[in-house]
Design brief:
It comes from Roseibium algae. This is ABC transporter substrate-binding protein. Keywords: Signal. By secondary structure, the chain is α/β, with parallel strands linked by helices. Helix content is about 45%, strand content about 15%. The protein is built from 16 helices and 13 strands. It has helices at about 1-25, 55-65, 80, 85-95, 115-120, 130-135, 140-145, 160-175, 175-200, 230-235, 245, 255-265, 295-305, 315, 335-345, 355-365, and strands at about 30-35, 40-45, 50, 70-75, 125, 150-155, 210, 225, 240, 250-255, 265-270, 320-325, 375. The strands form four sheets. A five-stranded mixed beta sheet has the order 9-7-11-12-13, sandwiched between helices. The longest helix is centred in the first third of the chain and has 25 residues, at about 1-25. It is globular, with a radius of gyration of 24 Å.
Length: about 375
Amino acid sequence: MGILSRSLGVIAASAILAGILTSTASAEKIQVTDIAGRTVDVEKNPSRIVLGEGRMLYSLALLDRENPFKRIVGWKDDLINYDPDAYRKYLAAFPEAADIPNLGSPYSGEYSIEALVTSDTQVVFLNLGNLLKAQESGVLEKLEKAGIAVVFVDFRQRPTLNTVPSLQIMARVLDQRDNADEFIDFYVKNMNTIYGTVEKIKDADKPVVFIERAAGYNPAKCCSTFGSANLGRLVDLSGGINWGTRKFPGFAGAVNPEALFVDDPDVIIGTGANWSEAQPDTAAVLLGYEATEEGVQERLAALAARRGWGELSAVKNGRFHTVYHQFYNSPYHFVAMQAFAKWANPEQFEDLDPEATFKELHDRFLPIDYSGVFWATLKQ
């Protein structure tokens, strides 16, 4: 019996090993060039991925529409902290989201590569804007040594340049190219509703637009704005002249309010989101899926009533606005661009309806329904 038991044990072990080798051999590898220009060998259609930022869910939901959480085995808690409305919206539809481990920042010394290895992570998606941090922290090298593929995408630094290729890269990896192509067609169509008209507007007729980044997030501080990147670039492309583009190079910068008051821009747009849970004393406009028109107007009026702001032309002329901050890091930024276009050149874009666009985006491409408030103009 002892010999027979040992023989059966060898046969069982051989069967298990054969199964592992067959599974490994059947896992198809593909090669992609990510947005950082890196050539990456990655398993096609992985079942276990990690998001370097929770807000990458905005993009993933366009691809894995039936259940965007089915592959996620770890993420950062920025979605929970800085866009809790969206998190609760998804949580109601997919309760399993509550079980996803918060791995913290991939660029901190506390980030556990062991946790990724233990959870059999196959792919980690990181943001292009943190490429240098990933290199300097050593996390990139550690992940590569652990056999975990790292793919960089970008919806923040150069959104109009990198959104389409980023979605295509993610779709190739996740084997969701049809869903990506369908959304990209919608994206291009809606971007073109702006470009064709803007080309006909002379620069002399374009208004100067000031974007106040995270307006009122810290009530004691003012202000920050975007340069020629991100929302600043979206302003320039939607028929305005971004104030920050003229003042400094780069992604964003601090602003002396006195300089703003002297220049007196034609249009002012502050970004806002539900930061009240991460920053309880915030004065920001709490835009998002749970926002109400009344609450938005109350907080927008308070921002316009800050010392000196009431004398600005934008406030006096009904061109003081707010927009959902999270558009700055999402493939949905063309919706914000449509709002910018209407605010900058209302006559030329009279027929443009960004709310209808955003509702259609939800109806056709997302597993959650549309609700709340995502932009507004201060009522006179």
